[in-house]
Amino acid sequence: MTTTITITGAGGQIGYALLFRIAAGDLLGPDEKVRLRLLEIPQGLGAAEGAALELQDGAFGLLEHVEVTDDAAVGFDGTDLALLVGARPRGPGMERADLLAANAGIFGPQGAAIAANAASGVRVTVVGNPANTNALIASAAADGVPAERFTALTRLDENRARAQLAQTLGVPVHTVRRVPIWGNHSATQFPDISHATVGGKPVGDALEQIVGDVPAWLDQTFIPRVAKRGAEIIQVRGSSSVASAASATIDHVRDWVQGTDDWTSAGVVSHGEYGVPAGLISSFPVRSVDGEWRIVEGLELSDWARARVDASVAELVDEREAVRALGML
Ligand code: NDP
Asked: What is the interface pTM, i.e. ipTM, of the complex?
């Protein structure tokens, strides 16, 4: 079998980190061949073509074909997995409405091109920010493609949250489970440890022994650290997070295709779960079953957690209204 994968913004930094992981089999395993389509804007074509030459030089056994294009109809032709990475970054002095308008001009046409050209079972993952609302815009423009096929990446936030918890507790990260992200991939996101386990046991007692006042630690240390980790990386590294964002994208798509054995986080369309307005693309605790994301239902939310979820969802509602006001939804 061969899977066709389209990466937009493939000439950018995250694209560069993603391509080689995919070609090496990290996404779909060692038996699945891949055909890559690198979609760029004209200014990005040179970088994408350079990456394609390097892919050739990697002599990857699983890589059947690489195509570079700035034509969305070609880029999404027959695609099974669309990774929408390219987005318009916020420029100096740019208002949020301008940013949303610029991205609506990218993600609307891409959604339409996916509907017209992609494989019938296409799965779309939006990485480019504002990821949740960009996914909503693409989905709204993709006539005939179920809204459940459009998702936004919040897995990096979850990975960061699990890593922070593991480091605080002094345990290996794989032993820390069930730390979902709720809401928007933004500073309002809510990394929720209410149901988290370490080595299969609730995390609360172990955490209290180390940090003392757990609610204060969550408010003042944990949640801000996770939400502002991107800025911390920029400060230390001198440029934005790239490899970790690519790695989380691999985690998201791999789990979506191959299934999960426990909860994870993804921005998926709401049908009203947990009071999140239907149609929004919000992050929830999810499982992947039979190739579909399913929201984990029935979890208790404390008043404190509820307020955090509501604040992040209110931001998503505002973004949707702003895009509607621009006539782009
Ligand atoms: P990156 O590859 O570094 O980032 C791409 C997008 O990912 C940005 O929107 C960025 O958001 C987002 N992102 C999501 N999570 C993270 C994270 N944790 N850390 C960092 N970024 C994150 O950007 P480059 O500028 O290197 O590359 C973008 C490419 O996209 C360019 O080659 C450009 O030509 C192309 N492009 C393609 C388009 C198209 O195909 N139609 C449209 C627009 C651009 P944030 O900006 O908030 O950091």
From this structure: 0.91
